[in-house]
Amino acid sequence: MTPRNVLFLHCHDLGRFLGTYGVATVGTPHLDAFADGAVVFEQAFATSPTCSPSRASLFTGAYPQRTGVLGLTHQPFGWDLLDPSTHVAHRLRRYGYRTELVGVHHESLVLPDDEVADRLGFDRVRTGGSRDTVVARTVEALESAADDGRPFYLQAGFHEPHRTATDRDRPGVMGFLGDGFGPDPSRGHAVPPYLHDDDGAREEIAELQGAVGHMDAGVGAVLARLDELGLAESTVVLFTTDHGLALPGAKCTLYDAGLGVALIARVPGRPGWVGRRVADAVSHVDVLPTLFDVLGLPPEAEAAGTSLAPLVEQGHPVRRYTFGQQSHHIYYDPKRSVRSATHKLVVNFDNAPRAMDPTQSWVHRSRPADLRVPTIATSRAVELYDLVRDPDELHDLSPGLADAADPALDATFAELCRALLDWMRETDDPLLTTDPGSARHRLALDTLRTAERAHGPLPAGREVRHRSAHGSAPRDAAPLATAYDRK
Length: 487
Prior knowledge:
Blueprint: E1 5-11, H1 29-36, E2 39-45, H2 51-60, H3 64-67, H4 88-93, E3 98-103, H5 113-120, E4 124-127, H6 131-146, E5 152-158, H7 199-228, E6 235-241, H8 256-259, E7 260-261, E8 263-266, E9 276-283, H9 287-294, H10 309-314, E10 322-328, E11 332-339, E12 343-348, E13 382-386, H11 407-426, H12 430-433, H13 439-455, H14 478-481, H15 483-486
Parallel strand pairs: 1-5, 1-6, 2-9, 3-4, 3-5
Antiparallel strand pairs: 2-7, 2-8, 6-8, 10-11, 11-12, 12-13
């Protein structure tokens, strides 16, 4: 039986901080149980390490350079989708779907709920709310949909575990605490290797563990009601997050800690979608094509990604590379990245600080392992990491830093430079068309182009399709090329 409904659950700033992804100190029994009966994508990546660009990609199937959302959509930033009709709600509504949004909306311009509904293709939108509000509204939406008879698309977003200001925070700190939960150090502290393991980091991790566990219980309540209503066998359930943890060295960076996300999918009635773990790298832009595939709907020709069904069901790889980008968050910090199964290339187009601070705090309780003070070091123009030997990306192997010349590493560097340039051209990346106003921007472009000239274009067939998200005819890039001046 082909499933007819979609329940799309998502949350803020989670990365892969779940028990099912090997984090033993966080209590996530509901998502872990859900994962046991679903497909867990172990190497899923967002297109951006910041909220709005990544969500715009997730819900349109396009890279940020094409959606127009290169920064945050709330004021005073005000980035917005160039074409709101590309949202998945609009697309499914054309096939007769009942569409509803509950909780987090951060993928297009922040407006009153009725305006968001009209622009994105939702029948009803109710934004905001803490976990209990989101659960109550999502359950009510499921109950209403069960009596409707039409297929439904329900998009429900949890605010937790985003940092939130409370009266329990120490002065100068915005932590992970919220109503109804506190720190949870009961299983220990899973301090990531990219942070100094000290008292400040452990304090933050304990709060984070409490917030993630609180969110997990909300997901469990929603899934239980879905089952009680008899909808589980006819509903595709997706769970993911926007990007990595809101910790220094993760969110706002193009390292795996910033781009790596949990992605779990339950697809009833399709072979191979139960109790599977997939090790191949996949991207958020692959989610929309996958959704249309498993629903039995015509493929979306404009999607940048590709359906993951062949990977899950036949073991056929769908991509050689995943790509990441950052342009704006709290300031202009243009970066691009390309990742293969073994290596990562990060290109920094501006002399910004080494690590943008994602803590929203004046007082920093945790700090990157490779920096004494997070704001004094400046990023190099290019960074290269061996993900097999150095999965935490702590040892830069870019040209000029390696101890000795390594022809194999040089060839890898050249390949990734070519792949990144190819992707930037296909997405009409404004960093290629904007006049380089800084020496760093020129240096970054020159490095990429020098590698391409020296080694030629990528051989045909080396990359699985990652074409433009708006079809073969490229959209006019001028609005994006001048967008930096508007923001």
